[in-house]
Amino acid sequence: MAREDLLLEVNGITKRFGGIVAVENVSFKVHEGEVISIIGPNGAGKTTVFNMLTGVYKVDEGTIRFKGEEIQSMNPRDIVKKGISRTFQNIRLFSDMRVIENVLVGAHIKTKYDFFSSIFRTKKFKDEEDEITYNALKVLQEVGLYDRRDDYASNLPYGDQRKLEIARAIATGAKLILLDEPAAGMNPQESHELMEFIRLLKKQGYTVLMIEHDMSVVMNISDRIYVIDHGKPIAEGLPEEIAKNQKVIDVYLGGSNNAAKD
Ligand SMILES: Nc1ncnc2c1ncn2[C@@H]1O[C@H](COP(=O)(O)OP(=O)(O)OP(=O)(O)O)[C@@H](O)[C@H]1O
């Protein structure tokens, strides 16, 4: 029987690019409040999975259910509105905009006012804008960037820029946050702070699905881990199970996949 707190259920998704099968028959589940990691060597298909979850790529086969509803045919904007938001491998902030403005960009996906209201700045428009600004500031408070709200994004330290990206994802109202290599380019101190930050998100009720190469981050904060290699699922389990799984060790140690880098 399905657990009531099942948030995301991915069933047998496959994606082909011409002759390349980037992802083949991958299935996994995410429950509310979990931190789940997807790992695998370079080119394993992890980002392709994220692109299918967020509607950037259409699945060739399989289903993706979010809160019980099939979303694999929806467009990216509707998927964000349903409650799934993401960050990217390379930070994608508006660097010449202020911190608060970057968060507002995420928050605006929720606006309900029409074109007329925005042109004539009706009361409905102003009320909604006030509410959005209030919520954006609340998100900045949640992630610890409130005091830097008026700084330009480019002036933030690297770790805070990652946080700001996550803040923008949260400001959409999403409860499932997909993080694509959040620790990429971080030094050990920044990675440590990131782990604390992800634990904080979990405490605040967010669910996190993460692609990550930094094994100390993965092993320290994941509730469960899924491993894929050459597009196929090869293992799943608790961090301590994955750490001693022979198939996983072989893929990371022996592969022709540039795995040493990971
Ligand atoms: N748009 C695309 N067109 C053609 N091939 C693609 C496309 N996107 C991904 N691929 C291929 O699909 C495979 C999986 O790529 P993907 O980027 O999902 O791997 P990854 O696990 O995220 O890798 P990394 O850890 O290096 O980011 C690779 O062989 C890649 O070249």
TrEMBL record:
It comes from the Bacteria. Gene3D superfamilies: P-loop containing nucleotide triphosphate hydrolases (3.40.50.300). It holds the Pfam family ABC_tran. Keywords: ATP-binding, Nucleotide-binding, Transport. Residues 8-255 form the ABC transporter domain. One of its GO terms (molecular function) is ATP binding. This is ABC transporter ATP-binding protein. It comes from Ventrimonas faecis. The lineage of its organism: Bacteria, Bacillati, Bacillota, Clostridia, Lachnospirales.
